[in-house]
């Protein structure tokens, strides 16, 4: 027990700084005015949590948090910019909605988590000093639970390939190879937003050559 | 204890950042001169002179940029290069950060570089910079995937995610021979991630400088230094993962690492000067249709090799 508790003051200071960074950047996610900024504030928050996990000797999970969240937040930022009517995500926009429900949910989960932190009895099982966290995690995930993880991985991979195949040639306005036209206002009608064509617009020029 | 665990590693990384970036600048000028591009002034002084000139120049401002992200992005890219240099072992004991998951940490550096490069292009609030940023994200995902499969390949024979163990596992046979596809693929990823030479698509001339189109003065200096330092970090990781790191006869280990890193840098810079720039669409096809399957083959090869 003494051995597992014997960390320096540096670890405590690092934990406090990182915890503050995680909370402050998570708060900024909701106070900022852009999808891209919000995503990357969330990324900073996750990175701070990842470093705390390394401080807790979860060396693989902490570092895995960095690259997983980096890719995840990039993809999230890009997709949000693509689906929102906010070119490039630099224009200011409100990042919060359904405020009353959110405040309620926030207060409830804060109370529940605080109560758990204060009242729960945590197990006291110090690990041996020679434990290799990466190896033991690997044994945990790919030992008895190998079938579950491998099938989940395979299903995810199949889904990803399927999504790419389904989405690659069919866009919102038809096949990608045929050029983009908006759908008609009534089904089967002319594409919306297309300028009215002059009846004799095409050969209008020819009439003038008669005389 | 503080001196050994904090001050020495930090000094080591800072030295590598400065010396590495300077070496890249000098080597690139030597290669350009040898290939017939006329060079003005001494190759030794010219990089320093350009750095000093950039320091005195005005830092450009665009209309309503995201100032914090715009100014931070070059510094963050430099920090990522520093993290990369910190995991490169110079000998069995001389390594700035001997984390047990240093291979994964390097993978995170590559993933976070995508964020930083995108942020650099996005935050300028300018058209070409933004296109450069988006272009890098589209390509960066394929770079990351190729690099991860290749690096898992070198972790398999080592049975460890630690670079010192990866080097130690090459005592009998270097990975460059054991897994012949690994090093070429990793070097291509290196050129892509530092957008150098044929794979300079994020900061390319067809985008008037891409993500760096709007920066000048000190931020431009930091950005250029960071790209060069990242190239050095790549050569360091390639040395540890494929070229046996400190292993070698006669000379002391750190000297072997330096020689191998210089050799890798020379190859990268030569490729950068010799090959024409790829079109971005063709680059995406090349990455997903040819190089990614090749990295699968490399991984299967490594797996079968580790089982036998």
CA distance, first residue to last residue of chain A: 107 Å
The quaternary structure here is: heterodimer
The total beta strand count of chain B reads 0
Radius of gyration of chain B: 19 Å
Determine the most extensive contact between two protein chains.
A-B, 23 and 25 residues
Q: Please indicate the count of domains of chain B.
A: 1
In total, the number of strands of chain A is 2
**Share in helix of chain B:** 55-70%
Q: List the strand order in the largest sheet of chain A.
A: 1-2
* Major beta-sheet overview of chain B: none
* Overall helicity of chain A: 55-70%
**Radius of gyration of chain A from the CA trace?**
28 Å
Structural class of chain B: mainly alpha
Number of helices of chain B: 11
Note the run of SSEs of chain B as H and E.
HHHHHHHHHHH
Helix run count of chain A: 8
Biggest pleated sheet of chain A: 2 strands, antiparallel
């Amino acid at each position: 027990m003494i051995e597992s508790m014997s960390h320096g003051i540096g670890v405590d200071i690092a934990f406090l700084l990182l915890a503050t960074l995680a909370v402050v950047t998570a708060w900024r996610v909701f106070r900022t005015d852009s999808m891209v900024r919000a995503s990357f504030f969330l990324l900073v928050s996750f990175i701070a949590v990842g470093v705390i996990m390394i401080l807790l000797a979860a060396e693989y999970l902490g570092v895995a948090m960095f690259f997983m969240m980096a890719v995840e937040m990039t993809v999230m930022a890009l997709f949000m910019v693509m689906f929102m009517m906010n070119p490039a995500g630099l224009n200011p926009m409100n990042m919060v909605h359904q405020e009353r429900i959110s405040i309620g949910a926030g207060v409830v989960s804060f109370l529940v988590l605080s109560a758990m932190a204060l009242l729960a009895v945590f197990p006291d099982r110090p690990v041996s000093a020679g434990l290799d966290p990466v190896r033991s995690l690997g044994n945990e995930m790919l030992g008895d639970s190998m079938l579950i993880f491998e099938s989940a991985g395979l299903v995810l991979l199949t889904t990803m390939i399927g999504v790419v195949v389904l989405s690659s040639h069919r866009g919102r306005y038809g096949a990608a190879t045929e050029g983009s036209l908006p759908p008609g206002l009534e089904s089967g009608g002319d594409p919306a937003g297309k300028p009215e064509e002059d009846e004799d617009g095409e050969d209008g020029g020819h009439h003038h050559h008669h005389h | 204890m503080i001196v050994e665990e904090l001050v020495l590693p930090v000094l080591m990384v800072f030295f590598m950042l400065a010396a590495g970036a300077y070496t890249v600048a000098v080597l690139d000028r030597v290669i350009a001169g040898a290939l017939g591009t006329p060079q003005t002034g001494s190759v030794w002084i010219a990089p320093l002179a350009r750095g000093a000139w950039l320091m005195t120049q005005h830092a450009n401002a665009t209309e309503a940029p995201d100032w914090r992200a715009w100014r931070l992005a070059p510094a963050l890219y430099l920090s990522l290069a520093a993290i990369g240099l910190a995991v490169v072992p110079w000998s069995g004991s001389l390594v700035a950060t001997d984390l047990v998951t240093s291979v994964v940490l390097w993978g995170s550096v590559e993933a976070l570089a995508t964020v930083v490069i995108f942020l650099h292009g996005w935050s300028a609030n300018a058209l070409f910079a933004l296109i450069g940023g988006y272009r890098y994200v589209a390509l960066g995902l394929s770079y990351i995937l190729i690099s991860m499969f290749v690096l898992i390949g070198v972790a398999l024979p080592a049975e460890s995610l630690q670079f010192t163990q990866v080097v130690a596992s090459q005592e009998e046979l270097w990975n460059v021979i054991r897994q012949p596809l690994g090093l070429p693929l990793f070097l291509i990823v290196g050129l892509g991630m530092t957008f150098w030479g044929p794979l300079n698509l994020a900061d390319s001339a067809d985008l008037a400088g891409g993500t760096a189109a709007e920066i000048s003065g000190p931020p431009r200096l930091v950005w250029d230094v960071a790209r060069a330092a990242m190239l050095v970090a790549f050569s360091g990781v390639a040395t540890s993962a494929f070229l046996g790191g400190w292993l070698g006869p006669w000379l002391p280990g750190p000297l072997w690492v330096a020689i191998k890193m210089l050799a890798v840098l020379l190859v990268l810079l030569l490729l950068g000067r010799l090959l024409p720039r790829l079109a971005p669409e063709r680059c995406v096809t090349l990455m997903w249709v040819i190089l990614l399957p090749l990295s699968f083959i490399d991984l299967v090869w490594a797996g079968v090799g580790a089982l036998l």
